[in-house]
Amino acid sequence: MCRFLFSFFIVGIIFVTACNTPFVAKNKGYEAMSFPAKSYKSFNEPGYPYTFEYPSYAEIDKNINYFGVSKKTDSWINIHFPSMAATIYVSYTKMHAQQLDTLIRDAYTFANNHNSRASFIADSLFSNEHGVEGVFFHIGGDVATSYQFFLTDSTTHFFRGALYFDTTPNEDSLAPLNAFLYKDLKHLVTTFRWK
Q1: How many whole angstroms separate alpha carbon 18 and alpha carbon 80?
Q2: What distance in Å separates the CA atoms of residue 193 and residue 129, rounded to the nearest whole number?
Q3: 39 contacts: CB under 8 Å, gap ≥ 6
Q4: What distance in Å separates the CA atoms of residue 115 and residue 112, rounded to the nearest whole number?
Q5: Burial class of residue 32, CB neighbours in 10 A (0-12, 13-18, 19+)
Q6: Are 177 and 32 in contact (CB under 8 A)?
Q7: Residue of 113, 111, 142, 141 whose CA lies nearest to 124
Q8: Where are the alpha helices (DSSP H) in the chain?
Q9: Going from the N-terminus, what domains does the chain have, and what CATH number goes with each?
Q10: By C-alpha distance, which of 25, 157, 47 is closest to 100?
Q11: What global pTM score does this model have?
Q12: Which terminal CB of the chain, N or C, has fewer other CB atoms within 10 Å?
């Protein structure tokens, strides 16, 4: 009898506490995203050896510090997308003789640093109508950066960019943002030219 009362008491407590918890439906997917209309403006600042078009919904940050060292005089910039919590981190190097191979190797190393998390890494050579050549990297999987690229004239200039989001990498949830910003990255590299 004592066991019966104890069991009845436990079931009663579970029944009473379970009924007080409100039901919350589980989301079946990610929130719908709305994106701004595509429009571009020119980055053509004095003192910078390059020019390109970037989205009007992005902001250029020219005050870059790299491990406490100012890179403003080195023509480094960041292209922020505040509404998407994304940034294209850009570095520029004025090349010295025989430095191209090292810079290209470094760009491939940066892309391959994601091998442990990447489902694939695809690189594609390109050149635009202004004579700028480069390589565009697409990195799949739950990686910190899905797109990286570098541009060069093979003698004097080397420009490298990488798109990062201010969030934990999740390929599924970032897929719409990556698809949207991919077009902007492609526009940037096709309009890019050296001064």
Answers
A1: 47
A2: 9
A3: 55, 56, 57
A4: 5
A5: exposed
A6: no
A7: 111
A8: 2-19, 100-112, 171-191
A9: 40-194 (3.40.1000)
A10: 157
A11: 0.80
A12: N
